[in-house]
From TrEMBL, chain A:
The keyword Phosphoprotein does not apply. Pfam families: CT_C_D (PF02682). This is Allophanate hydrolase. It comes from Natronococcus pandeyae. The lineage of its organism: Archaea, Methanobacteriati, Methanobacteriota, Stenosarchaea group, Halobacteria. Gene3D superfamilies: 3.30.1360.40, Cyclophilin-like. One of its GO terms (molecular function) is hydrolase activity.
UniProtKB/TrEMBL annotation, chain B:
It comes from the Archaea. It comes from Natronococcus pandeyae. Residues 22-313 form the Carboxyltransferase domain. Signal peptide: none annotated. Pfam families: CT_A_B (PF02626). Keywords: ATP-binding, Hydrolase, Nucleotide-binding. This is Allophanate hydrolase. One of its GO terms (molecular function) is ATP binding.
């Protein structure tokens, strides 16, 4: 077992890259870590607030961030200079934010994703097993049950929204040696059910809409993460449920509970179980297990 | 304006929906911004007014009132009441007239601008259609027979535009095959030799070329990359990276190169190696399936110069009108 703390990662010098004439991409690290992610979130929040003229898009991602700008107003080198000075100022351990902790019920090994998994076996590394069996085995678990217990056993932080609107990439809030890691499909699938729970690299994804996908599929949630018409409770401010920095707790449910929650979602009466917390990176780094327990108390 | 036939894929588009990339929402909007803007100016509109983008095979429409329109972009042989009408030119139509299109002979996308613009309620600040989640445009989808599109109030100068035309030398050449690219993003993953082969190769636009992205066929890409111990979180393939943001115009290496267009997926876990310069995204949008392009590496100052030249040309066109 691990030493029970999150080992801080010394980040390399960021790579500032031009994306054509109108984008700048900044890679804070090639590897995923909370340090890289929190820094990406902190810098993008700062750059939004200092309202530099000519900014078009500011999008944090897992260990990097992306900015689009209007080059007739802002030269890319001017933007990069500004980003470098922000980079020097920010200390991740002092960066705190208000996070929402969400209960996300998941029906693991559900019939819908199972059917998809079986339909695309020839695109998988191991056509003779299921995605769950394969992932459990390569991560050293004795059984699918133990693997699922691990995935649902500690909360996950949303570290990026993207690919398609509302899709959260989530990183489990445990020390690195307890993190699950799996490959993406050898060739992406052309179909994925909506609300499928997928896993690729070190990230859980929730697919908001049906479509292509390359992540290993583990289950399905009855709740929505995208509501374009903003009619459901929980979507008053945005069509997207979680923001980066929010925390999702995947909770194992059975078919009966899946069906009953799904019915509530479909008739518009479902209320998400969530609450707000002040997230303090330093406290989390020092004692992730204890800190997570405390976080999840707000869901009781 | 009534749609008599939706053509192959026809959507309402404009200059795009910005400020939502961080929730995974691409800008959408006209794939060929140059043709879209010029079409609008020809009928006295603002460049941000909504036009119809038609793909390969145009739509047929019936005008319900007298109106000034212009067709720009790919030439799909437009006819008004069965009489051919010139492209890149402001034309008067009368109430009840039918405007029909054929297959594109050069380029892929045609724009129909109507004085007053397609006046649909904007969604998140734009009328652009984004079909993946069904927002914007007409019910968030491609147009079909029977759809009715409201037209805004005609600008005061629209009638004065009738017969005005874009000079031949200011119309884009849709047979161009060189696409300017700023190499970068994660191109450190390429070997020197791999980078050279990528830039030297002829790349054929595959059948999978739409508003999300253009997939290309060409040499095997797997051995263009440096072998490494993959960083934590990336996944084991040489083309895997820790999921990151993809710029519109970026070249993503997922089995084969894919260039992301205006309905781009905003991020993912495949390595990106460069970004098409913005004016050349318009040119690429007009490249036909099975045509061949090659990528020309330019530095950022050259990219900015290419953009300035395009902006100057647009300004010249706008002033000439």
């Amino acid at each position: 077992m691990s030493d029970r703390t999150i080992t801080r990662q010394e980040l390399p010098s960021p790579r500032y890259e031009y994306g054509g004439d109108d984008w700048v991409f900044v890679e804070l690290d090639e590897a995923m870590s909370f340090d890289a992610n929190f820094k990406a979130q902190a810098i993008t929040q700062e750059i939004r607030q200092n309202s530099l003229e000519g900014l078009v898009e500011v999008a944090p991602s897992n260990a990097s961030y992306l900015i689009q700008f209007d080059p007739s107003v802002l030269h890319p080198d001017e933007l990069i200079d500004e980003l470098k000075s922000l980079e020097d100022e920010i200390d991740v351990s002092e960066y705190q934010w208000e996070a929402r902790v969400f209960d996300i019920p998941v029906f693991y090994d559900d019939p819908w994703t199972h059917e998809t998994v079986m339909d695309f076996r020839e695109r998988h590394q191991d056509p003779d097993s299921t995605d769950l069996e394969y992932s459990a085995e390569i991560n050293g678990f004795d059984s699918v049950e133990a693997f699922v217990d691990h995935h649902a056993g500690a909360p996950h932080m949303v570290t990026m929204i993207g690919f398609v609107p509302g899709l959260p990439f989530c990183f489990q809030m445990v020390p690195r040696d307890e993190q699950i890691e799996v490959p993406k499909y050898e060739q992406p699938r052309t179909a994925t059910p909506s609300r499928a729970i997928g896993f690729g690299g070190a990230f859980t994804a929730i697919y908001p809409v049906p479509g292509a996908g390359g992540y290993q599929l583990y289950g399905r949630t009855p709740v929505e993460v995208l509501d374009v018409d903003q009619e459901l409770s929980g979507f008053e401010e945005s069509m997207v449920l979680p923001n980066p920095g929010d925390i999702l707790n995947f909770r194992q449910i059975d078919r009966e509970e899946y069906d009953s929650i799904r019915e509530e979602v479909e008739n518009g009466t479902y209320e998400y179980n969530y609450d707000r917390v002040d997230f303090e990176p330093q406290a989390f780094f020092e004692d992730p297990r204890g800190y997570n327990e405390q976080l999840l108390e707000v869901l009781d | 304006m009534r749609v008599l036939d939706g053509g192959l894929v026809t959507t309402v588009q404009d200059t795009g929906r910005y400020g939502h990339y961080h929730i995974g929402m691409p800008p959408s909007g006209a794939m060929d911004q140059f043709a879209h803007k010029v079409g609008n100016w020809l009928v006295g509109n603002d460049e941000s007014d909504a036009t119809l983008e038609m793909t390969y095979m145009g739509a047929d429409v019936e005008f319900e009132e007298d109106v000034v329109f212009a067709v720009t972009g790919a030439d799909m042989g437009p006819s008004l009441e069965d009489e051919p009408v010139p492209t890149w030119t402001a034309v008067q139509a009368e109430a009840g007239d039918t405007l029909t299109f054929d297959f594109a002979t050069e380029g892929t996308r045609s724009y129909l601008a109507v004085a007053g613009g397609v006046d649909i309620e904007p969604v998140m600040g734009s009328r652009a259609t984004y079909t993946l989640i069904g927002i914007g445009g007409h019910e968030g989808r491609s147009l079909e027979e029977g759809d009715e599109l409201p037209i805004g109030e005609s600008p005061a100068n629209a009638d004065a535009m009738i017969g005005r035309s874009i000079a031949e030398e200011n119309r884009p050449d849709y047979s161009a095959t060189e696409i300017n690219v700023v190499m970068g993003l994660c191109d450190y993953r390429l070997t020197d030799e791999g980078r050279e082969r990528f830039l030297d190769a002829d790349w054929k636009v595959s059948d999978e070329a739409d508003r999300i992205g253009y997939r290309f066929e060409g040499p095997d890409i797997a051995d263009m990359f440096e072998e490494r111990e993959q960083p934590f979180g990336a996944g084991p393939d040489v083309t895997n990276v820790v999921d990151l943001g993809y710029p519109v115009g970026s070249i993503q290496m997922a089995g084969q190169p894919i260039i992301l267009m205006r309905d781009a997926v905003t991020g993912g876990g495949y390595v990106t190696v460069g970004t098409v310069v913005s004016p050349d995204r318009d040119a690429l949008a007009q490249c036909r399936t099975h045509s061949t392009v090659d990528f020309n590496a330019v530095d950022v100052e050259e990219a900015l110069e290419i953009r300035r030249e395009r902006d100057d040309r647009l300004e010249e066109i706008q002033n000439s009108l």
